[in-house]
Design brief:
about 180 residues; alpha+beta; six-stranded mixed beta sheet; about 45% helix; about 30% strand; elongated; DUF2953 domain-containing protein; membrane
Length: about 180
């Protein structure tokens, strides 16, 4: 009798654990997950951070760069990529992005710095249009600061990408 009660209690515990795991999986599929991504180039050092963890050093540490002949791009792969991106452009299921870009640059000549500032300032719509094909843009903030007569390049990109796993699975079936 006691053994039968213990077996029944053990089955109830197993059933509760199973229901808890199902609830966690359902929660992960429905709730959007924010990914905090930061790309930084400062003082001639480059880093890619995911939740303030430098993933660039972990991925590319101790790797030797192989010099190889350039590979040809297959036209069939390129056309399939462009067709999938065009179908993705009008989708309402795209991930949401909030983007903050800070760029501080300078050249030795102030005239070249000013010309480059004009070119970089005119690239705002291009960046926004490229990002809008893949993401639903919530907020974009681009700050460009020129430093005249000073040779410097500092770049910082902070973004929060909200990804919903259920939408990604559904989009995969659509494409």
């Amino acid at each position: 009798m006691v053994i039968l009660i213990k077996v029944q209690i053990w089955r109830i515990i197993q059933m509760l654990i199973f229901l808890l795991i199902l609830l966690i999986i359902f929660f992960l599929l429905i709730v959007p997950i924010p990914l905090k991504l930061k790309i930084l180039y400062k003082n001639k050092k480059f880093g890619i951070y995911l939740y303030n963890i430098n993933i660039y050093n972990k991925l590319f540490k101790n790797r030797k760069i192989k010099s190889s002949s350039p590979k040809r791009i297959n036209i069939k792969h390129l056309s399939s990529l462009l067709s999938s991106l065009s179908s993705f452009k009008n989708s309402k299921l795209k991930p949401i992005i909030k983007l903050n870009i800070n760029l501080t640059y300078g050249l030795d000549d102030a005239a070249y710095t000013a010309v480059l500032y004009g070119m970089l300032s005119s690239s705002y719509p291009l960046i926004k249009n490229l990002l809008s094909t893949i993401f639903k843009i919530k907020k974009v903030n681009i700050n460009i600061t020129p430093k005249m007569n000073d040779c410097i390049l500092d770049f910082e990109l902070n973004s929060i990408i909200s990804i919903n796993l259920a939408k990604i699975i559904y989009m995969r079936f659509l494409i």
